[in-house]
Design goal:
The structure is a homodimer of 246-residue chains. Helices cover 27% and strands 28% of the residues of chain A. Chain A has 246 residues and is an alpha/beta fold. In chain A, the strands form three sheets. The first copy, chain A, has a seven-stranded mixed β-sheet with strand order 3-2-1-4-5-11-10, sandwiched between helices. In chain A, helix 6 (122-132) packs parallel to helix 8 (193-203). The longest helix of chain A has 11 residues, at 122-132. Chain A contains nine helices and eleven strands. At the A-B interface, strand 7, helix 8 and strand 10 of A face strand 7, helix 8 and strand 10 of B.
Amino acid sequence: MAQNIYDNPDFFSGYSQLPRQVHGLDGAPEWPIIRAMLPALIGKRVSDLGCGFGWVSRWMRAQGAVSVLGLDLSENMIARAKADTQDPAIEYRIADLETLELPAAAFDIVFSALTFHYIKDFQRLTRMIHKTLVFGGDLVFTIEHPIFMAAAHPHWIADEDGRKTWPVNGYSVEGERHTDWFTKGVLKYHRTLGTTLNTLIAAGFKLHRVEEFAPTREQIEHSPELAEELERPMMLLVSARKTESR
Amino acid sequence: MAQNIYDNPDFFSGYSQLPRQVHGLDGAPEWPIIRAMLPALIGKRVSDLGCGFGWVSRWMRAQGAVSVLGLDLSENMIARAKADTQDPAIEYRIADLETLELPAAAFDIVFSALTFHYIKDFQRLTRMIHKTLVFGGDLVFTIEHPIFMAAAHPHWIADEDGRKTWPVNGYSVEGERHTDWFTKGVLKYHRTLGTTLNTLIAAGFKLHRVEEFAPTREQIEHSPELAEELERPMMLLVSARKTESR
């Protein structure tokens, strides 16, 4: 079972105050890129893996999805998502992505934001997603970028000019990474970019777009603290399509 | 025109003493990965972009390629490649990949090792390669990894535990990188991983495999200096297939 850090009270109270949790999608600077990577939603059956408070699930429904299934490991998250949603076409359920099984060919789109880096068995998960998508269906997801996750001490340092610099080590050594984020010992799984992409290809996906979030000039003018995101990518965004049966 | 650093006498004399130039393919630790990414060569027409001394061109011919066209910007390289090759099915020519045009549907395989990071206009080059490949043809190439290239001062540093660590900054700022390698001011072009992959997809390629070189345990036992390559990837290796007409 994946570590359920989101139901740790310290974590949950800190996490709930992140701009993206307070302001929803407008608080997530990568949101315009995600929107551009998503196919048209009208008439689509969608699953949102790691749905959190349900911001994306509700947005997808508002864009015309006929049904949305939001899944999350956290009881707190699912309770809040249910409380914030009045729409019988959106269903929320507690689920562990390490063991989740969804029915075959049941969804047109599978979406996931910043969740898969908590998952140990990415191969099992991608095969399950491939199975639950219809032929031609899309998987769109974001994860923490392996450049961001790899190092033993992942925090800003300065180079010899004093420029903000991100350290990379242990990049090829995949597996557990323990970091402190609102609470001690948050457990994540580092995978190289090659492993992430090749696992998708091997499962029968065709890669459509691979993005590494960088803020636009307009975003930096509005939120100068985003400028540091030009120095190293924090987030990897991938869209892939089920084009082969396995 | 791409910078012709290889015909600089200081550069050429240093470069010629690299293990991979002295020992050929056995001196390149990534070679086993490249071999595994290449399709069968029997009966294939191959172009080798940035062929250098012709090590790979000759190997491909020995594996059964019916013809190999090796291209390189460097007169020194092409002269040495010609001197080292006695095979009328291998042709070497001086060419600038920034402006090169090859005939349509003339090749089954296009290969390139550690050359494309010298090229400014990668979009033009990928479209040209797409055009010169037959339908179903393969592009297999290696480049310096963007993690390796991005920083203003790309050299090893130590983290707080003294561990070898690679600095990353300016990752999202694409364009020129000037480094000293055998001589001053070697000019390379940094592109994000997303840009490299999306440019291939937009040109009509289907990505088949994305590898980031890491040494095996056996390689490290034999050559302990390779252990540092586990800390950060120096090389990106991509195989892609022409599956769409453009």
